[in-house]
Amino acid sequence: MRKPLMVLVVAVMAAIGFAAPAQATVNAVDMPFGMAYGNSTTTGKIHFTDGYTASVSGTVHAASGARRICAYGVNGSTTSGLICSPYAYAGGPNTTLDGSLNIPKPGGVVRVYVTMYDENNSGLARLYCTRSGCTREY
């Protein structure tokens, strides 16, 4: 008697939605970014994976002084490590940033901040990107 009752209870629970919810699948997304400070610019792409990481690749062009970009990832109150490009100098070649950000928790990296700095390490321009777009902060 117990076994048929248990089978019936499980079947009823599944039919009315008490079954364990399916895990949502997050697809990989490429999000382009770009910003300027005067005539100094940066452009690039953030590749949000379907795992815990986001890869950042970008180019820095300095029109005056020295410029570099740094990026880090966020998920709630957890942050990834910081990655930075070398400095690009006015009249010199552009520099590149290629690196990976990792947050080993559900959802992985959900937001990436990219900041352009001058030679005094002062933030000149900053944006953040998610899987759905980028927003300039300053």
Walk me through the structure.
The protein has 138 residues and is mainly beta. Helix content is 10%, strand content 51%. Strand 2 and strand 3 (53-61) form a beta hairpin.
Provide the descriptors you would attach to this structure in a database record.
138 residues; mainly beta; seven-stranded antiparallel sheet; four-stranded antiparallel sheet; 51% strand; elongated
State which percent range the strand residues make up.
over 45%
What value does the average pLDDT take?
A: 87
Q: What is the radius of gyration computed over CA atoms, rounded to a whole number of angstroms?
A: 22 Å
Q: Could you list the spans in which at least 5 consecutive residues all have pLDDT below 50?
A: 5-25
Terminal CA distance? 69 Å
Reported for the largest beta sheet, the result is: 7 strands, antiparallel
Give me the number of helical elements.
1
Reconstruct the topology from this structure.
Layout (H helix, E strand, L loop, with lengths): L1 H14 L13 E9 L2 E9 L4 E9 L4 E10 L2 E2 L3 E2 L3 E2 L5 E8 L8 E7 L5 E8 L2 E4 L2
Question: What's the short story on this structure?
Answer:
The protein has 138 residues and is mainly beta.
